[in-house]
Amino acid sequence: MSESAMGVRERRKSETTRSLVVEARRLFSQHGLSGFTVEELCDAVGVSRRTFFNYFASKDDAVIGVAIRDTEDELDDAFVAGGNPEQDALSPTLFDDFVQLLVDRWNRSDVDTGGMRGVAESIKHEPRLLARMMELAMRDEAMDIALVERREGLQPGDLRAASTVHLVIAFARPSAMEFLSADNTDPLDEIFRRRIAAARVVLN
């Protein structure tokens, strides 16, 4: 597939994903998690049930805003291409490249910040969503560890891959919380890199 065709496909996917998330959160805020169906969500957005399940594993995931991970993702492919699995040492840019990967994913998702803040507050009263968020976080963590292993040519279970992912996530989670706070005006990228810069000072 050409780069331009890939760009069109990704934009269309991003737009559909965003529309489903925004509408799912609107229905959730008005009716609660059990107050609407996937069919009602699809009708509101103008997509088929089959299309919905190409994007999300469940209605809960649409409310949370976590889509199915694409096994043919150009951001992941670019990250993997930046490594050199033939060398003995890890790529010198591994950590920074993984940080950039998370930032690029966030930017591509075109997050509805206001809606996400509302959901974050509502989730406190929906244990099912909170449990699902934790499950998805563990899934994505495992997939990213495997991605680092593939980029660096590491054997499954190599702690260097897990450490890379765990370290970056340790900065990503509080950065996202700060970004979503009601009084924040800074972009996520800036918040994220500010925390990492502070850690470098401590560790050096």
From TrEMBL:
Cytoplasm among keywords: no
DNA-binding region: 37-56
Recorded GO MF terms: DNA-binding transcription factor activity; transcription cis-regulatory region binding
PROSITE patterns listed in its UniProt record: HTH_TETR_1, HTH_TETR_2
HTH tetR-type domain sequence ranges: 14-74
Gene3D superfamilies in the record: Tetracycline Repressor, domain 2
UniProt keywords, alphabetically: DNA-binding, Transcription, Transcription regulation
Coiled-coil stretches: none
Pfam families membership: TetR_N (PF00440)
Name this protein carries in UniProt: TetR family transcriptional regulator
UniProt keyword annotation of Transcription present: yes
